[in-house]
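Regression test attached.
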Amino acid sequence: MIGTVPILKIGRTLLVSIQIELSDAVAEGMQNDVLAALERTNAKGIVVDISGFDTVDTYVARILAETAKMAKLMGARSVLVGMRPEVAATLVRMGYTMDDVQFALNLDEGLALLGHVIPR
Amino acid sequence: MIDVVAQYRLEIQIEDDIVIVRRKARQLAQARKLDPFATAAITTAVSELTRNVLVHAGGGSVVLEEISDGERYGVRATFEDHGPGIANLELALAGGHSTSKTMGLGLSGSKRLADRFEVKTEKGVGTTVRIEKWQGL
């Protein structure tokens, strides 16, 4: 389907790379898809790559944070990777905090954080 | 003295309009060479305020403008709705007090992100919010 977010499995990690502008509906669809994929694949970790985002508003931030919390209830750890400087600055200036979410600079760091290091 | 270089009026009626309005704001900010931080700030604030119009007033409109003071360019967004008005403006501007499914940071967050921020609200009449973001000095 056009406009959805692909979810890839690498080992026991799900990789969600969001490269499209998220409407509210697509963001919610992504949340459902990630949780469904978690159940289907028995993955233990989720890496969500948001390096394609130059804007994250509080709605999308909430969906991302909620997804991580829901995945945690299902026994999986989540890491958000690739947040751009301007996005980080904007969220902090707005007063938004994502306390329960883990972050990493990039995909490599995110996978390493989950203990899924890909040998070079 | 601020000149309006170009003006675009967009309706805010359905959820997909949030993406359309946000995209237009980003396009204007980039066209007027706001830096990535200022572009993210205005784009995010526009996204928050567009959602506010939809969620709290059921719809409305926004006028996006490319503006100039003779030395710099900027982007201005003026949101207008005929919803119930903001019952407690002080509380809404303090942030974190959501009255609906939003985070409650829309108004306060947008104020923090913008270079200029104005809000006028009247119970039963509606709300107007205007923000500006300028190129860095």
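Expected vs. actual: identical. The CA atoms of residues 7 and 65 of chain B lie 4 Å apart.
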